[in-house]
Amino acid sequence: MKILHIHQDFPDGSAYPHTKAVLNLIEAVEANTNITSYVLSLHRTSNPFRVSVKPFERGLSLVYFSLPLPYIHRFMLYFWASLIRIVYLNSMKFDLIHAHKLTSEGLFAKYLASAWGVKYLISVRGGTDFRFYSRMHDCKKLFDQILKAAKKVIFLTPAAQKNMEKLTSFPLENSTVIPNLCRFTMTSDSSGHAKKKNSSIEYTTVLSFHQYKRKGVLPLISAIGLLRDKFPALQIRLTIIGAGDDSVLNLIQSHSASLGLSDQIVFSGSLSHDAVLRTIAASDAMLLPALDETFGMAYLESIATQTPILYMKETGIDGFFRENLIGVSVTTQDPEEIARAILVLIEKGDEFRFHIAELIRSGFFNIFKSEHIVNSYTNALHG
Description:
The protein has 383 residues and is an alpha/beta fold. It has 13 helices and 14 strands. The protein folds into two domains: 2-178, Glycogen Phosphorylase B (Rossmann fold), CATH 3.40.50; 190-366, Rossmann fold, CATH 3.40.50. Helices cover 42% and strands 19% of the residues. Strand 5 (96-99), helix 3 (105-116) and strand 6 form a beta-alpha-beta unit. Helix 1 crosses helix 13 (370-382) and helix 2 packs across helix 3 (105-116).
């Protein structure tokens, strides 16, 4: 079987932002099955002079011009899909198409599948799909048709599945949940957390500065300020891992200083992946009240080190675990709510670490590992 993967964040050697989630899936499936893959990697630009089509190791990279506006979006995407099919892909044969988002790649998949007479899968990844589904009023009927006609609709998380079912007016009976493939080492040994007992409470958060609003770093700092004011004996220190524009760094530092927290908010800058995990492992909890989180690998990597988490309800990894099992969820970025959640983490930190260790020992986290992901994916292909 040969699959055409259509993905907007694929690492194709271009300067555009990318993630390795789909590449990890492709590599795992090809290593364990007879399935082969070809990737149509998409990048949208608002500058028509930056349009390009280039081959790369795993397929074709298209930088296409389009404006994400109602009554324009769908026609521009059909134009580019038609051009790519006629000029570049018509000599190839594919047994199946997998579009890794609904509201952009899904339009490519619908057109190409119809032209070639093949079936397609759709992944719904969260944030962008939900925003476009709500905003592109002229496309809602089309998005619904794409979902209904898909061989299978794949959600990365139970939260994404739940949120999509709220947006649509019909049950998604052809859907399943297949999380991102995670490559981490789990430990169920609780002895490593005994060293966290010290005079200060150490927390960590992880973000790229350009996402500081969505990641909730300013409300998080405000919450720490509220706790300092209400409980002066609490010694809380937050390490912020990440980097980006100096203007955002100055903004975060100014916010910390205005609350008298300069000594309690530590900026580590960018760290290697191993250093990030070591820092999280040495923390009492990882705090990330992020909105519209697609998956939230940082949460799982924190749990893998047996570190409890503060996370946002109905997004990211919410739904994989029972409430109050691996940390505390919040429903908003309101500093008062975040402060209350931190108090729960302080009170029940050992209990959360015990539950995480039990989950690890039970093999629960195998659902995020290669063998389970590949089996689930091949079942979706053939089911």
